[in-house]
Amino acid sequence: MRHITQDGLRLIKQFEGFEPEIYLDAAGLPTIGYGHLIRKGEHKMFENGISESAAEALLAKDVWAAENGVLRLIRVPLTDGQFDALVSFTFNLGSGALQRSTLRRKINREEHDEVPQEFMRWIWAGGRKLKGLVRRRSAEAELYQT
Question: Is 127 inside a domain boundary?
Fold first, then answer.
């Protein structure tokens, strides 16, 4: 199975940041560590926070799920930069967002020149345009083009 490169992992960690305590993300969802969305039944295990090493182990599992989503949904060959950018996108928004996106359709039609602007359509959370998402999508678009 294909995996994200260290550059891609650094990108995710840079934008997620490490938070040892439960917090609400931009969409108002409970999150901890490096952007781990706390699922039903997980809340108790994180009541006392999380160490950075435990957060990195959790990040590896979450990235694995994002990698699988990209591998399942994208049917054309990808460079490392393209794969990393899509894993970051999928980590942040979920494979459902990738599945229903015009971004995915353009990639699978190999319309790679049109992909960067598709990333920029995903800069909203809670009905608001977020500067952090603008920066992240710009970084993903740039990585996609490498």
Answer: yes
Instruction: Check whether 65 has a pLDDT greater than 90.
Output: yes
Tell me the C-alpha distance between 46 and 113, whole Å: 42
Look at the chain and report how many structural domains it folds into.
Answer: 1
* pLDDT tens figures, 32-46: 999 999 999 999 999
Task: Specify if 75 maps to a domain.
Answer: yes
7 vs 14: CA distance, rounded Å: 10
Tokens at residue 30, please? 């409970």
Catalytic residues: 16
What does pTM read for this prediction? 0.96
Angle 132-21-39 from CA coordinates, rounded to 5°: 80
Please say whether the beta carbons of 143 and 81 come within 8 A. Answer: yes
